[in-house]
Amino acid sequence: MAARLTRPHRDDVRIAMGGLAGGLLLWAVGLYSRTGDDPITVVDARWAILVPLAVTAACELLRRTRPRTALLVGTVAITADLMTLGSLATIVMFTDLVYAAVLYGTPASARRIPWITGLLTVIGTVVPYMAWRVPQALLIGAGTGLVTLVPATTGWVVRNHRDTADAERLRAEQTALLAEMDRSQAVTAERARMARELHDMVANHLSAIAIHSTAALSIDDPGTSKQALSVIRENSVEGLAEMRRLIGILREGNGGPSAVPTLDGLTALVDGARANGLEISLDTDHGKVPAPVELAAYRIVQESLTNALKHARPGRVTVALSRRDGVLDVRVTSPYGHRDGPRAPGSGAGLVGMRERAALLGGTFEACPDGALWAVHATLPVAEGDPE
C-alpha cells in the first residue's frame, strides 16, 4: 500500500509561488547571475534557466514535509543552474532549502548539514585559490559560504532556540503538574487528618449518647432514665464543645497548641469513660514526649475506650503507656467474646484512623484478639533529640 503524501504547508506553497514568480520576472527582464562569457556557463540559452528554477520551486513545497529530499533535489537543481546563465531566484530558494533541512529535518541532519556546508566552504575557498593564485578566487569560497554555510548555521541556531523553548515549556508543564499533584496530596492528607480528628473527638460522645439513650428507652425505671439522661446531656455538651473547637481551628486558627489534647488529660478521659459505665485501670509511665506523639497516643487511647464502650463484654479495661527503647508503647485491653451485638453501631473508621496515626509517625499498630481480651497495641517512635 502506497504511503499517503502529506499536503504541503500553506506557507510553503506561498514561498514556492513567490520564488517562481520572482524568477520568471527576472527571466522576463533579462537579469541573470552570469554572462555567456563566464567559463562555467555551459548552456547559454535563456530557456535553460527555467528548468532549475521550476525544480527548486517545486522543492520548496517539500521544505517542511520532506526537507531531506527537497535539499537533495535542490542541490542537483542548483548545480544545473551553475551551468546556465543562472537565476538569483533559484539561488535564494536553494538557501531556504538548506535552512529548512536543518530546521525541520531529523536531529542527525541538523548536526551534519552545518559541518558539510562548512567543509564545502573551506574547499571552495582553498582549491580555487591554490589553482589560480589570485585574490579574486577567494570570492568563490565566500559565495559558497553565503549560499550554504550561512543558512545552515541560521537554521541550527533557530532550531536550538526552538528546542530550548519546547524543553522549557515541557519543564513548566511538568512543574505545574507536580505542583498540582502536591496540592492534591496535601488536600487529601488534610481531609484525612480532619476526618480522624472529627471521628476521635465526636465518636466517643455520640457512642455514649446512643448507649445511654437505648438504656433510657428500654428500662422502665425513673432513676435509671434520669441517670442516663444526665450522661446524655454531659456528653452532648462536651461533644458540642469539641465541635466548636474544631470549627474554630478550621475557620480562624483558634484553639492553638493549648487546645490540643495532651497525655495529661488521660485521667479526665478515663474518668469520663468510667462515668459511661466502663471499669478502667490506668497505668502511665511515659514522661515528656513530643506534641505529635502525645496527640496520637491520646487519640488512640480515646478511640480504644470508645470501641470498648461499644463492643467489649463486661469486665475491666486496662490502659498502659510506657516509654522504652526510644518508643512510646500504648496498650489498651478489654474483655473480648461473643455477645448479642455492639451497643452502638460502628463503621470501622476508628481502627483505620488509629493505624494512620501510628503510620504517620513511623510507628506500628495492631488490634486483634489476645485470648479472652481484645488488645490494641501501638508503638510510637520518640527521637533521641525529643524532650524527655
Describe the main β-sheet briefly: 5 strands, mixed
How far from one another are the termini?
80 Å
Overall geometry comes to rod-shaped
Number of strands: 5
Cα Rg = 44 Å
Q: How many distinct domains?
A: 2
- Counting H and I runs of at least 4 residues, what is the number of helices? 10
Return residue spans where pLDDT drops below 50 for at least 5 consecutive residues: 254-258
Write the element-wise H/E pattern from the N-terminal end onward.
HHHHHHHHEHEEHEE
Outline of the structure:
The protein is an alpha+beta fold and 388 residues long. 63% of the residues lie in helices and 11% in strands. The protein is built from 10 helices and 5 strands.
What does this protein look like?
The protein has 388 residues and is of the alpha+beta class. It has two domains: 165 residues, no CATH class; 127 residues, Histidine kinase-like ATPase, C-terminal domain (Heat Shock Protein 90, 2-Layer Sandwich), CATH 3.30.565.10. Helix content is 63%, strand content 11%. The protein contains ten helices and five strands; from the N terminus they run H-H-H-H-H-H-H-H-E-H-E-E-H-E-E. It has a five-stranded mixed β-sheet. Helix 9 links the parallel strand 1 and strand 2. The longest helix is centred in the middle third of the chain and has 81 residues.
Please give a handful of descriptors for the protein shown:
single chain, 388 residues, alpha+beta, Heat Shock Protein 90, 2 domains
